[in-house]
Structures are given as C-alpha cells and as structure tokens.
C-alpha cells in the first residue's frame, strides 16, 4: 500500500492521524502553516489548540455520539505507550470534586480504579477549608506531559517516513493538492476551508497558568495527585451563574493551573469577563485560578502558591463546534477528492486523538477497526523501543 494521503493541520489530531496512517502503510504528508515546535510565543496563536493542552486523557467538553468508542480506543493506545515508556506519558491519581452534588458523567464507567469519594475521607483528598461535604470521585488518569509528549510524537512521525510541508492552505487550492484523499485536521481553520453544516461554531476560551519547576504533588502512597475542583457558585461561577472549576495538573515541567470556560462564537469572539481578576504580563484571568488552587494546595500538600510567584499565563481556545454533535468525523467529496473531517474535539483533542485516527483508518482500509487497532499496536511496538526516554 503506497497511496498518498494529505493531512491538513499539524496539531495533535493531525500528527496522530498522520502517524497512524503512516504506520499502517500509507504515504502521508502534513500540510501546515505553522509547526508547533517553531512557535515561541503561543499567546499569539490562541486558535492553535495544541499549544495549550493540560493534557489529561479525560473526555471533557466534547460532544459526540461515538464518544465511548473513540475514548476507549485512545485510552488503550495511551496505556500501550505508557508500557513502552513513550516520553511524557504518566498516570495520576485524579480527583473530580464538587461542593454541590453533580451529575455523574458516563465516562466514569470507562476510567480505571474509579472510586466515589466519601465525606469521611475529606482530610485526605483535595479540598479547601472550611468544607464539610464533598461529592465526586477519583480514578487513574493518563496524562501527556506536553513538553515531552508532543515533540516525541512529531519526531516519531518524521522518523518513520512522514513528511511535513509548511504551506498555507486555502479553499481555492484544495483541488490542486497532490492526493486523492485529504484528512482535514485544521481545527478552527476548517470552516474557512470547507462548508460546515453546523449553524453555530462555538469556541471556549480558557486561561492557564504555568508554575515552572514546582514539585510533583503526591499522596502517602507516592501517587501523583491532580484534580478538578468545583466550589459553590457563590465562590466561582461562569457568566451564567453556573459553578465553575479550578484545577491543578502537576507535570515534570511544573504545575498547570486553570481554569476558565468562556463561551464565544468562532469568527466573532466576544468574551464576558469578570471584574474579579488578577493580571500577569498584561493578561487578565479569573483570580480564583490562583486563590482557590492556593487554598487547596496549601491545605492538602502544605505547599505554597501565590500570585507573587513566577507564573506564566496562557490563553487558548477549545473548538466545541456545537453542543449537539460537535465532533465532526465524517467524509465527503470536495473537488473530486475524498475529504475526511476530524475536528471539533473541544477540550478532548489529546484524549480522542488515537481513537479518531483509528476511525479514519477504518474508513480507508478494507478491514475492521479492531484489526486496524491491533496492527497499529504492533507497529507502535516496533518503532517505540521499550524503556525509551
């Protein structure tokens, strides 16, 4: 098999899809205006979502009727990469906690070592004082330490025959691209390249802070602990008064602190921002990202976090597309070419990257997805040496 396939976009979805197809025997080329490793100031490119992952492998803020299948496929590949010591893949003891009783999402059934939290154990789980009741759960969660994982993913693609061509793609030149099959992984650039049947194109703006060289947060069992924590709406809420969450994801390069979810429409981004903010390097962000995380980290880990610390702010977009069936993973004919769309991942671009790539493989191959999955695992084992670093 040597069919030429072009992938538009070099974010995590584009690179993962290209690598998957390359390992399955296709001849792939990624067309992209920007290569992620060449960008020094990511705040100049808020729509390039792969500059900003935290990156937990949890299907947050994404909408698809294929979610379970896509997630489980991705999860299995990430666990295999973990066994092979692929750079940046770690497993945390992750908590999702609320001060008011939440609805339990379906994905709780898909996570390993899931446990509901108990009020009798409050002192041993992330919380802010004074809190008498907590709701939620914990599970084992895969994390992709982004400063390690993304460069390694790109290198693996290039080392296995993949090609990247830096070129701005426009709607006018789609018909001139030198391949009969095109995979569209251009994210927020997709509606400018192809017609989109969705009326609304929703994006969610998020604020992140990076505290470099911060220590890993661990429990008495030596497990790295991360969390999403939602206080009562009076403490932290979105523009509609709905309770909002903060989080801390410890990585080898420091802590990633969040968060915010400010909904806007692609092409006319207007954000409702609270007057209750901190400001760093000219970037305003909800003050609760620092203040609440500081309380939680101090209470459980006896470690300090302050607005006076050296914190690096970032502001990026998650492309939700719409809340009915936001993920677009389908094919159509455009300019006599087969175009397979792979965008609208919301906050789950990393999480669903391998599952979406395998679904695309199913559309291209004459074999079932289980077979493609097994072949991909076999090929990954060949190209990722055990105990690599």
UniProtKB/TrEMBL annotation:
Broadest EC class assigned to this enzyme: oxidoreductase
GO MF terms held by the record: D-amino-acid oxidase activity; FAD binding
UniProt name for this protein: D-amino-acid oxidase
SUPFAM superfamilies, per the entry: Nucleotide-binding domain (SSF51971)
InterPro entries: D-amino_acid_oxidase_CS, DAO, FAD-dep_OxRdtase
Recorded superkingdom: Bacteria
GO CC annotation: cytoplasm
Catalytic reaction equation(s): a D-alpha-amino acid + O2 + H2O = a 2-oxocarboxylate + H2O2 + NH4(+)
One Pfam family recorded for the sequence: DAO
Keywords for the protein's UniProt record, in alphabetical order: FAD, Flavoprotein, Oxidoreductase
Family named by the database record: Belongs to the DAMOX/DASOX family.
Source taxonomy: Bacteria, Pseudomonadati, Balneolota, Balneolia, Balneolales
UniProt EC number: 1.4.3.3
Domain FAD dependent oxidoreductase residues, every copy: 5-362
Cofactor dependence: FAD
GO terms, biological process: D-amino acid catabolic process
Organism in which the protein naturally occurs: Fodinibius salinus
